[in-house]
Amino acid sequence: MNWLSNISPPGLKSVFGKRETPDNLWVKCPKSGELIFKPDLEASFWVTPSGAHLRVGPLVRFRAMFDDQKWEAIELPEVPRDPLKFKDDKRYVDRLKGAKAKISDRNKADPNGENIIQDDCMAAAIGLIGGKPAVVLVQDFAFMGGSLGMAAGEAFIKAAETAVARDAALIVCTASGGARMQEGTLSLMQMPRTTLAIEDVREAGLPYLVVLTDPTSGGVSASYAMLGDVHLAEPEAMIAFSGPRVIEQTIRQKLPEGFQRSEFLKDKGVVDMVVDRREMGKVIGSILGHLMSRRKSSSKGVPPVSQPRVDVVE
């Protein structure tokens, strides 16, 4: 205790007491190294002034895409947890609990956190984009690397079924490191199952758009990520089947600079457009305006949505 404490009038300490400052108020840009005020970053959908697109979850993507940032949450099917009773250095069920707690804390910290339903790496919602009805399914890399498992497969099928039932376009934002090894062959089975769901959307005459984000790899890039009618990608997103080190060791050759990035793939015809996240909703709305212009009823089954109430599609 110093001499100033002895002469301070009662109550003065509470006025000038120590204030706690949030430890995550500033975010460092991975591209430029500058510190960015977090509220400014949130306002720009987590795109830094230097153009770096940081990894985000479903809430940010829904806000960036849907008209007036309004949507209806889609309830996704439940699946058996840990069907193989898998365990390495940690039980699979414990990994799932930890991952779910992580995303739950993140979503609760968001002002629109109550407007989302997410139990695994997928979250889906329906709303209007450019005035056209669309189901948006988002793969969350924060949940076990967005790995493709039974829950993700069922989520994709549910989103596709909802799109057909509601006469809406299907839009999938991919972000994954590949199949979920803890589910073995059951995980790999989701590749053909999602492919069949895409065929149902096409047979209904509805558009299927893919937004490739960083990173998209493994079984996801070998299935529904490359089956879109239109492929959009965020700037500098890593899009591949396997990593560059594995490929270089296999073919024993030095690979071109940035050959697995979205700009390189656009030049080679794999990606149709590289789109800034802040413009994604506008661009998709324009595309849907062309692809769905001849449909007699483009708003079938899509009632006005509002927030903060959550309408659940069952």
Major sheet: order of its strands? 9-8-7-6-5-4-3-10
Mean pLDDT over the residues: 89
As a whole number of angstroms, the C-alpha radius of gyration is 22 Å
CATH architecture of the largest domain: Alpha-Beta Complex
Question: Can you put this structure into words, describing what you see?
Answer:
With 314 residues, this protein is of the alpha/beta class. The chain folds into two domains: 18-50, no CATH class; 55-313, 2-enoyl-CoA Hydratase, Chain A, domain 1 (Alpha-Beta Complex), CATH 3.90.226.10. It has twelve helices and ten strands. It has helices spanning 3-7, 12-15, 38-43, 58-65, 92-108, 150-165, 184-188, 190-203, 218-221, 244-251, 262-267, 280-291; strands at 26-28, 35-37, 72-74, 122-129, 132-139, 169-176, 208-216, 230-233, 273-274, 312-313. The strands form two sheets. An eight-stranded mixed sheet has the order 9-8-7-6-5-4-3-10, with helices on both faces. Strand 5 (132-139), helix 6 and strand 6 (169-176) form a beta-alpha-beta unit. Helix 6 runs parallel beside helix 8 (190-203). The longest helix is centred in the N-terminal third of the chain and has 17 residues, at 92-108. It is globular, with a radius of gyration of 22 Å.
Question: Summed up, what is this model?
Answer:
The chain is of the alpha/beta class.
